[in-house]
Amino acid sequence: MKLKVIFVATLALTIYVLTSVIGGKMSDTSIEELINSASLANAQDSFNQNCGHCHSLVKGEHRIGPSLFNFIDRKSASVHDFLHYSETIKGLDIVWTQAELFRLIRYGRSYTDQINMAYEGISSDEEASKIVKFLIEQSEN
Question: Cα separation of 60 and 114, whole Å?
Fold first, then answer.
């Protein structure tokens, strides 16, 4: 009986968190707490698998998308030597905070219909948090 109650409570919390994030109700603070508690185990592999095909972490090394070198808290479409931004993304008014980056990594194309990316998103909050934490670590080094 006790196990059933724990399972139901865990399921209810999971559903609440997922609907909050998808519905835009999860606060930036809640997302940042999730990121801060994330593990960096296999984070680089996760970045490479989900982001590395299109983005580099090396300054000035652009691929299909711009380099992600030191981009935390920077305005979207602001890498001056990346010349392939769409007009749509140039018009966005987004600052890549930890929370906005989490939303983009977690939900991919559905984050906003204004970003032209093939990326579908990642299936778990934990994995998205791990990638964001990895990118923050890379920005600080």
Answer: 24
